[in-house]
């Protein structure tokens, strides 16, 4: 009986240490917003990584997921979320559901999250996790995300987790005045910049945040 108790205690302390290292890595890479850090502490990245790479879920690195996509490294998720500056009453659009990890983080910060992906399988699997975690303020939809979600527009915040050559026009059009969009932009897979776009009364302000590497934003629906 004692051995079992010791095992549980050791397991718990290992999990606590892993979480501490995870949060330290985020802070050391520039994620300092306490609301973002709290959201990332609450949402277990391990739930979103399956198969061979599950044991690496708490490392600060991107990992492969189904449909040839990736789950972004946690520090990039944190930096993008921090730049988005989500407020408690915000309605957020995420383009590129992927594993569902980014949407789950956003669900802790926003009133409502709409997440879209061109791959049915990814949307289905992410939605299963959202239900298991009782994240009732996320709506996951299979659709061509490059056109946004006009039926639900305008949005207070838009986040794009795939790289476009330029900030997509349909998404810019669906952003409220005063709203923020965070999107990776680049002409190739190797040279991309993370851009923060703020819609003003007269147009758009663009801030370049940092170099990144994302899968490309592709039009049309996936085969899976």
From TrEMBL:
InterPro entries recorded: PCMT (IPR000682), SAM-dependent_MTases_sf (IPR029063)
Active site residues of this protein: 72
Stored Gene3D superfamilies: Vaccinia Virus protein VP39
Catalytic activity from the UniProt record: [protein]-L-isoaspartate + S-adenosyl-L-methionine = [protein]-L-isoaspartate alpha-methyl ester + S-adenosyl-L-homocysteine
Known function: Catalyzes the methyl esterification of L-isoaspartyl residues in peptides and proteins that result from spontaneous decomposition of normal L-aspartyl and L-asparaginyl residues. It plays a role in the repair and/or degradation of damaged proteins.
Name of protein: Protein-L-isoaspartate O-methyltransferase
PANTHER family: PROTEIN-L-ISOASPARTATE O-METHYLTRANSFERASE, PROTEIN-L-ISOASPARTATE(D-ASPARTATE) O-METHYLTRANSFERASE
Family (UniProt): Belongs to the methyltransferase superfamily. L-isoaspartyl/D-aspartyl protein methyltransferase family.
Major subcellular site: cytoplasm
